[in-house]
Amino acid sequence: MPDTQFDLIVIGGGPGGYVAAIRAAQLGMKVALVEREFLGGVCLNIGCIPSKALLKNASVVDTFRNAKDFGITVEKFTPDYAAAVARSRTVSNRLVKGVEFLMKNGNDVITYREAILMRELPSPIVIVGAGPIGMEFAYVYHSYGADVTVIGMLPHLLPREDTEVSVELEKAM
Length: 173
Description:
Blueprint: E1 8-11, H1 15-26, E2 31-34, H2 41-46, H3 48-65, H4 81-104, H5 112-115, E3 125-128, H6 132-143, E4 148-151, H7 163-172
Parallel strand pairs: 1-2, 3-4
């Protein structure tokens, strides 16, 4: 590709880089995204996202371990760390696939302004942002049968709400 010309070259495919590349493409620029190792960044691939998944598993293990404190008897309990790691990789990989999908389809990126006026159900759809607008669209689209993936950078959905609210929403989603 030595003779290819770009309006913008974004170095780094982390959350800042891939979002910048998508936005530039939305604005009509010819964009190249250069990423050495992890599309979606370290956090998404081997950092905060998989570690939060492991923390959730550890919380469930502790809940089972202390089940009698809640009036629950658990006859046999065997935590499986390898399964927890596998689950954390599944969570991370699902989100990475969402970013990959966005990179392959930069021309199909819309904002909430276009989304609110669409008459056809988008499916599959990746929603970037787990704030109120993103979660409202995720709920509506999923209720109508769309395959929805939500990508958020922070540890919880609706990160500006009380943690208890976010955790309950995550259980429901």
